[in-house]
Amino acid sequence: MPSNTAKRVQKYRDSLRAAGLRPLQIWVPDTRKKGFSKECHRQSKLIQKDPEEREILKWISLVSDDKGWV
User: Fold this and answer.
1) What is the 3-state secondary structure (H, E, C) of the chain?
2) Which residues are CB-contacts of 30 (< 8 A; sequence separation ≥ 6)?
3) In whole angstroms, what is the distance from residue 43 CA to residue 49 CA?
4) What is the pLDDT at residue 9?
5) How far is CA 69 from the centre of its chain?
6) Looking at the predicted structure, is the pLDDT value of residue 69 above 90?
7) Is the Cβ–Cβ distance between 13 and 23 less than 8 Å?
8) Alpha carbon distances (Å) from 57 to 10, 15, 37
């Protein structure tokens, strides 16, 4: 027999599905992992002077809608 908590969770999930939503699982890098920061820095250095990267960043800046984020 499911616990009261499990019933509430199921009811909540059912209401979300009824609203037209579906669950989605996303796996992202673990920022707590040892060496994560060092690897980010390494990759950043690789593209630091890449002219294509500058163009991409300029384009992102032009097309981004970040009003209200800053």
Assistant:
1) CCCHHHHHHHHHHHHHHHCCCCCCCCCCCCCCCCCHHHHHHHHHHHHCCCHHHHHHHHHHHHHCCCCCCC
2) 36
3) 12
4) 95
5) 16
6) no
7) yes
8) 43, 41, 21
User: Residue 45 has which token pair?
Assistant: 């250095």
Residue range 18-38: mean pLDDT, rounded: 96
Residue appearing with tokens 């979300």: 16
Q: Position of tokens 């950043």?
A: 44
Angle at 41 between CA 35 and CA 47, to 5 degrees: 140
Angle, CA of 28, 32 and 35, to the nearest 5°: 100
Q: Return the structure tokens found at 16.
A: 């979300």
Q: Scanning the structure block, which residue is given the tokens 């250095």?
A: 45
Q: How many whole angstroms separate alpha carbon 64 and alpha carbon 70?
A: 12
